[in-house]
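Troubleshooting: if your tokenizer reports a length mismatch, compare your output against this known-good record of 193 residues.
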Amino acid sequence: MRTPVITLMCVWLAALALAGCTAPPASLSDHDGLVHTPLDGDEGDLVVVVFSSTDCPIANAMAPDIERASRETTEAGGRFYLVHARPELTAERTRTHAREYELTMPVIVDRNHDLVRTLDATITPEAYLLRMRGNGRYDILYHGSVNNLYGSVGNRRQNISEHYLRDAVRSAAAGKEIEVSQRTPFGCYIERN
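Known-good structure output:
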């Protein structure tokens, strides 16, 4: 089930593309200078985009589970991107953060908020699981929280008992329906530019 915002966005974009969501493929560089186009891919490709922040304590607390989700996504043949939506971040800062939190996926900085606006991201951490339809079109299969470590801001559990993103990736990779396709993310707000 999609949220009203995602539904309206997809309806508007679907009118342009006649099916699914469509976005111009934003080309963004990671901290090693490699260029990535997260919203472009062949039909059937799975792509995960997780918006994060180097200084958000909730995103940093979820970093180990984000790394596990990344590994499971790539093992299933998909692509996984960690996206920082802070224009002022340097490559050295994102590289240091990735090393400190043992993050091995491509880490990109969305300096102009191209992905933020296209996916309508508002929180870090906030996850999107997409199935590509080709030609820049995609369906949003899952959107929301990475896991249930936080029930709300300031309400941290001792342990994670539900891995929403990882479960969604497993279901999508197996061709199964995702039981709950929307979960409210809790974290730090993205300041739009």
